[in-house]
Amino acid sequence: MTLVDRSSDLAKLVEEGFDLEIRGGNLLVHHVPYVNASGAVAHCTLVSELSTTGEQTTAPGRHEIWVVGDVPHDHLGSKISIIADEERHDYGDGLVACCRLSGKPGNQMPPDYYVKISNYVRILGHYARAIDPAATHTNYPVRESSPEESVFCYHDAATSRSGLSAITGKLRLGKVAIVGLGGTGSYVLDLIAKTPIADLHLFDDDSLFAHNAFRAPGAASLAELAETPNKVDYFAAKYGAIRRNIQPHALRIDAESVSALEEMDFVFLTMDAGPVKRDIVERLKAWNTPFIDCGMGLQRQGNSLRGTLRVTTGEPEHYDHLPLRLSYVDVTANEYDWNIQTADLNMLNAALAVVKWKKLFGYYVDDKGEHNSNYVVARNQLVSGDTREAVVFRSGVRRRDSRRPRVWGALPFDSIPDCIPSVRLRVWRPRRHTDQAGQVALHVRRGVGLVAPVDRALAVHMPSPLLDHAKPSHVGAELQRTGERRRTTEGP
Predict the structure, then answer these.
(1) Is residue 301 within 8 Å of residue 278, measured between CB atoms?
(2) d(CA 208, CA 227)
(3) pTM, whole model, 2 decimals?
């Protein structure tokens, strides 16, 4: 985080559209409207001392401020009353102040830099707007920012212009990794490079070729492709034009190198399916590292393509759905692995992943809390699954086979929606119950774990004798996904 990020007064100035610069231990405010000696509206730079603890600002040490430009006048042509002196002050590097202003807000020392700066800008702007009502400290020209100000090379005017600085600040993570800089991964980079992440780490050991260029953002020149650059170096250089701290790693992440991800705060997996992905996912789970995995499957249908995009989220306390969602099979014959040019679907896959990432950190409202999304191209359908919504189903249970007393039937298949792939099974009787984890087995796939289909009902294999001698009227079954909201459906 930068000094501006850690200091609420400076952050508030940025949010209100002030063009701040930290240079040589001083706070500069550029593009401040004022009236010059000729009676015209111009823009000056204000220079203030900057007191900090080394980590964030403290109360200003002085209330005065210096003006780089002309001596300020009012709209009637007189010098303003708060000019303390007109002695020149040279700050170096061509920054020379022409005068010093002294105006305490409410005759009190300003408690912070927001009060100090906004007070002087208000006074100067008041006279400027008497001549030109449109005079403002916003809409300033682009200027290079310093590392103390921002991770960006120039001011993020889009965020401050929309008043979204506080919301965007939720994305101020420490280290975020993208594993795989193919079509989808490069578009993920394009989107998150414009967020205030402190450090972006790129992992890919492949070189950039022409077929990569046709499904990546931007446009690689023929000269650039002729050098066959490594993908991570190429993209780090491209996006280094807008932000700092992009760390390229020409490294293939596998079971031996996965430790490079251990310090990451979040990981985007935009790599091909295969056994190596299982190793990565298992390590991320062990470290409690949240991640998003992207997938795409395309098939020919006649002379057209059909397919599905997938975005799967894993986060601490919510990894149980992953075995049903992630594929670790290396299917090299899949058409997508032959690099069919689908830049639009790469871009959409990346956008869905970044939207979910922003939901996780509170940038967007997330009512559903889905942890898996599938977009079906042919039907233009977005299907969400593995949600936070707790759905409870209850019904009486009965013994399915008198010769197998520990096998009990519970819910008909048509009572279990496709969006509930993972449940906790609870079987109870008066004043006594036991929990047993399992998976829902629908007619479209077999169950995993302790639950499997029997005819069109759910068979419960209990390892304890709890049900063996219970009366059916005293026994029931509950299938529940934990979460915030609950909806109850009584079974037959």
Answers:
(1) no
(2) 9
(3) 0.67
